[in-house]
Amino acid sequence: MTRRLWSPERRAELTAALPPWIVARVLVTVGYLIVAAADDELAPNRDAPKLDQHLLAWDADWYDAIADPDRGYDRLPNEAVRFFPLFPLLGRLLGWVLAGNQGLALVVVANLAALVAGMLLYRLALEETGDAALATRATWLFALFPGAFVLVWGYAEALMLAALVGAFLALRRGAWWVVAVLGVVAGLSRPLGLFLVLPVLWEATRGWREAAGRDRLARVAAVAGAPVGVVSYLAYTAARGSGFLDPLTEQSPYRGAVTDPFSRLAEAVGDMVTPDRLGDAVHPPMALVMVVLVVVVIRRLPLRYALFTVPVVLVSLSAESFNSLERYGLNAFPLVLALAVLTRREELQRAAVAVGAAGVVALASFSWIGNYVP
């Protein structure tokens, strides 16, 4: 078992994923130090001092409260149900080991999951393209993608992304039961994990006629994985007295009404000129970049990637509010693979890494002063 864990493949994955993982955490620390040094000048009138919450600000504060054994869903407002349960549950379990510090446990889980996600992404990119340089580039772009600073914070994104990337890797290998388990993990982590069902369904139907009985059962289980994860949580909220769809509808006040994504993109130009907050100016160019990368995913990657990416991006761009758009773009992880495909030239790679590094520092800083919603 030890030999397998430290096989040449695992060492190669760790060697590729660890440096950008470390750099991203250094950059977030730099952002924190900048804000701490200039706190009064940057945000003299802020109502909620996000800086004092450290890596548990914004949504991470909700996860911390849910993970707290003395609070949880039952002692929080109903809007807490919009945060899916697996991540805070893991924080609560590890918190017992860490002397009851579930906040630290959430940060540990998120950061370890981010490293695993980077390693899996390297392996997935390598198996898809056979290009080790592209696979290594993908790990850097993943760690420095706009909004990727939340992989350092106590957010559930890293856990869901590790499950999603692992599921795509297992899907490519035909490991249907692994896909099923990771689908449940993704579905219990974030609602967007539900969209895993589309690429799995597509792949499961291919070769269905030739599949034996056991193989068909495994394929059905793989398709059901993500929906089972999501629906089981919805059923839990209904059983405890909330509405069955409350975990989905409670997000509406923050994202606004569902709108036409094409009209919303046109309006985004005006948002960039006169943003409500300085950090919001990044949303319109990010929306356009996401559209370009979706085209690359459709044209350059196998269909299963587009079947996941397109609905995630459409949902992200169909909201009246573009808050957290960069984080939602990261959830559509094939966009990272598309960016790695586009940056084969060394100068483009350096530019992408430089812009990404600056973005990690800037967006983390804006988040701590309340000028950006992560």
Distance between the termini: 39 Å
Order of helices and strands: HHHHHHHHHHHHHHHHHHH
Total of DSSP H or I helical runs spanning 4+ residues: 19
Strand coverage percent: under 5%
Report the principal-axis shape.
globular
How much helix is in the residues? 55-70%
Beta strand count: 0
The biggest sheet amounts to: none
Low-confidence stretches: none
Secondary-structure-derived class: mainly alpha
Q: What key phrases describe this protein's structure?
A:
374 residues, mainly alpha, 19 helices, 0% strand, globular
Description:
This protein is mostly helical and 374 residues long. The chain has one domain (2-256, 344-368). The protein has helices spanning 2-5, 8-37, 39-42, 59-67, 86-97, 102-129, 132-143, 157-173, 176-189, 197-205, 213-239, 246-249, 252-255, 261-273, 283-300, 303-317, 325-331, 334-342, 346-368. Helix 10 runs antiparallel to helix 16. The longest helix is centred in the N-terminal third of the chain and has 30 residues, at 8-37. The chain is globular and about 65 Å long. The mean pLDDT is 89.
